[in-house]
Amino acid sequence: MGSFSSFILPLGIKPFFAQAGLGWCAASYNGETFVLNEVAVESGLAAKMVRKYSTKALFVNNVALSDTWYVTDEESNVSPSAGVRAGEGAVAFASVGDGKLGYIGNVNAEHGSNVAVLAMCGLL
């Protein structure tokens, strides 16, 4: 559904999001297990989304937890040495002006990410 994270160079992420007033920048690139962050997603919408899924993703940093739709699972398969830092997210949705801007870091078009795109577009 989207392939932004597969084709943008990591150094291009920060200036892209800066145009929207967001401080997001490229962070880690890992395969992990994600769980839905119910603090960030309205309960009616959360009920229609995938609760947990695994994917390889390019994370962005400096993302508020309230804007991070999926967080790393405690049992994620990421190696301890690659530990994900606070503020990183692979699926984010933030208010920008009168609208919203979403980011899906998944590089392999997993079902959970496709559902997140539909949710961001108001199609669920």
TrEMBL record:
Keywords: Signal. Residues 1-20 form the signal peptide. This is Triacylglycerol lipase.
